[in-house]
Amino acid sequence: MVLAAAGVREWKMEQERAAALSGAQTAVLAETLTETEAESLPQIRTEAESQPQQLQEKKKIALTFDDGPHPYYTDQLLDGLAERGVKATFFLLGCNIEGNEEVVRRIAEEGHLIGNHTWYHVDITTLSQEEACAEIQNTSRKITEITGQPVEYVRPPFGNWDKELECEVMMIPIFWSVDTLDWSTRNADRLVDQVVSEAEENDIILMHDSYDSTVKAALRIVDLLQAEGYEFVTADELILE
Ligand code: NI
Question: Are 61 and 229 a contacting pair, CB within 8 Å?
Fold first, then answer.
């Protein structure tokens, strides 16, 4: 019993010492922390404020241009996109390529994505499989001859795509989420207002690089949406997410 009591007393003292020690350590630690905090607080705040902007992923959006290449407006558009460091997507018509090979080469060289929009702007669901495949394959072949790159994406005219279509090369269709109807309005101010007010993250915007009004509007749209924190990407980036 005595031994046991002595044991308990010793244990209690041990506990008290430990408590005192840890209390002292905590106090020292608290003092150290307070000093450190007081010195580095403004710096920590500055980092916390600047980091979210650097680390936060930007809202992505894609501009797509159908029915080109156009002998005049596509180059104008490319100039403006290059000035702004923006990449876009061009769905080309095979029948518009002849005579505009330099434009096609430039689109590819400047890092934009080129897709297929059939040869004659046809609704492929109204064609036989053979005719539909010819529309697509001839266009892809023509583009590849010029750019040296395979064509993987198709924007089916009128949005009509036959999922069962089996051509030599399978194509991935890319549709759109905002139809600007730029071919009908032909008004840059209205286009800008429409797109900037409707635009949301991950939108794929459908336009045509065949009009002066569209080129002007597209570049203003880029400026306004970049200021809102949007990053312009090629359309393949948005369908694969
Ligand atoms: Ni079209």
Answer: no
